[in-house]
Amino acid sequence: MKKLYIISLLVLCWVAAGCSDWLDVAPSNQVNEEELYSTGDGYRHALNGVYLDLGTSTLYGQNLSWGFLDLLAQYYSSSSLNRENVYYQALNYEFEDSDVKSTISSIWSRAYNNIANCNNLINQITDADPLLFAQGEFEKNMIHGEALALRAFIHFEILRMFAPAMIKDDHKAYMPYVDVYPTLVPEYETNEEILKKVITDLKEAKRMLAECDITEEHKVWMSVNLRMLGSNISTGDIAEDDVFFAYRGYRMNYYAITAMLARVYFWKGEYKLAYDEAKEVLDAVDNNGRKCFSFMPYAELGENLKDYNSIIMCFFNKTLQENYEPFIMKSSQNRFYLVGFEKGQNELDRRLTVLLGSEGTNNYSRKYDIPLGTDGTDMIPNLRLSEMYYIMGEYFAREDNFAEAGKMLDEVRFNRGIVTTDLKSSIATLDNYHTEMLNDMRKEFVGEGQLFYQYKRLDKKPVNKAIFVFDKPNNEDV
Q: pTM, whole model, 2 decimals?
């Protein structure tokens, strides 16, 4: 890396409405650093600026969800893509193509820019006076913990793209873990070293958020209506008058951090530790003793296309449907028509019926074709309940407890409408489990950018020419 740009945090100007009110940021185009961190609201704006940027098309608003990563996972038909376009090149792993290189470069640099913003925020808030914040030490810990979690999250995502999976680990250094601000020459580190730091940050963030999200007073924040829709706020709750404390499902809440630990341990090959974190998410209950995270009844999935009941954490993009629509229009030169998603393929599986739209004989995902103003339209799912079941199932399979492994997959499949599922009786080997898990993940994670990483983790190429390790940008500027 030649240099790491020292960036002053420019807070995004964003006037949001409805469910994005918590993301409202400073009304000017630029705010200097001294002014930004002179008030508690400035710290909120700095944190929200990171969330907003992560939801843009360069990152989770497209490339790292339904765009670039799902092309690499072979979700889409090549026949519906312009051969001269970056999407066709990505689908065919033409990583030497200049547009593909540009896309990968923008992901790298934008990710590290957000890490720099997190580091600046962490640096500023560590010694900040709690009296600056409307809710004092409580709010200071919440913002600090979320910034730590975001720093770990982004580093882990870079690792999953730009370093080999653990199954192919060659103990070389592929990227830096940048945890100071400013920095000019960060040191590159190995998979193990990066993962150790990711876990350390996530554990500290989890400790800090435990004092915010899972106390008796605030357990209600994890209920689905308050977490995802900002509704049903109790009288007297601080979220009633201050929306910053609502919509915890759009943020690095306590259980999002727990689920991230499960994901990281899973990647690292620490399957029992991954199981323990995933089980904590499954067992989570709100203030009324109801499960915080549950599947939408399959008969009602057509009314809740993203099943936000089961979302642990999502990103936000106000123009998501507008950005997605051109890729499912017949008149477009690049159409994201799905491969292997035929209606009638399994009439019981609602993911192959109500979640599919059709254009002639071609099918596409309806997950992001939700009109503005409809619940869920701005949500980009990143962490789901189903992933926790897959993680727990693999732990059981690796312990040769194939009946329990099958039960984990059966739970997901039943809640998607496959009421006849009985994998607990038919899975007999770890390879068998992986086959069934990947088949189900392909339907569950369409449009979410997660399947590519599972192919990589298990070294199971979706096509022979698949490439799992991205090249760093030529100039390595971030």
A: 0.94
